[in-house]
């Protein structure tokens, strides 16, 4: 999320027409069309952050600037050229890194939280804990994961380390409550 993504299209022969059809998971479809005979481009129902990378007659790539969750979905490029019709399909999955935090609750127990990640983050503790993670889904498709440290052995040290694992990056921090 927030980065730019470029999707390329196969280019063989002389282009007569190029079409990008975008079917997002949420919202209506978007279409970008280029016709070589008229040197004309058209866009139907596309957000401002989706556009040709340069010019469709030079580079049939699609650029999505500042990717958001709304851009997640299927992208299909079809080139009509002297070599035939050349389709290319993509499925864009958007990763949202969680906002990790570690704090002490009212009972003096360590609490680890990975807020608003997509997909949900995996939480673990050192030393090992027999705690379970609670997940709370949000309307935008992100998930907050929360875990309270519960020591397996009461004679263990008061220092606890939370480790957050996520495809967008890992994080760890220690706390003594």
Automatic annotation (TrEMBL):
Report the domain of life of the source organism. Eukaryota
Coiled-coil stretches are none
**Which named protein is this?**
MOR1A protein
What is the protein's species of origin? Melanocharis versteri
Residue ranges annotated for the Ig-like domain, each copy included: 1-93
Localisation: Membrane
Could you name the Gene Ontology cellular component terms for this entry? external side of plasma membrane
User: Where does the UniProt entry say this protein principally localizes?
Assistant: membrane
């Amino acid at each position: 999320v927030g980065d730019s993504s470029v999707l390329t299209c196969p280019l063989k022969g002389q282009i007569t027409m190029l079409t990008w059809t975008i079917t997002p998971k949420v919202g209506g479809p978007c279409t970008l069309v280029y016709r070589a005979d008229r040197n004309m481009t058209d866009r139907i129902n596309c957000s401002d952050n989706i556009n040709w990378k340069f010019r469709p007659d030079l580079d049939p790539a699609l650029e999505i600037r500042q990717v958001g969750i709304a851009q997640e979905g299927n992208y299909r490029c079809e080139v009509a050229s002297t070599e035939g019709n050349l389709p290319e399909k993509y499925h864009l999955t958007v990763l949202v890194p969680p906002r990790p935090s570690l704090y002490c609750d009212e009972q003096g127990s360590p609490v680890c939280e990975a807020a608003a990640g997509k997909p949900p983050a995996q939480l673990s503790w050192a030393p090992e804990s027999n705690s379970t993670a609670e997940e709370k889904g949000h309307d935008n498709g992100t998930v907050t994961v929360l875990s309270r440290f519960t020591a397996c052995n009461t004679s263990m040290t008061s220092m606890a380390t939370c480790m957050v694992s996520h495809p967008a990056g890992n994080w760890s921090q220690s706390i003594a409550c």
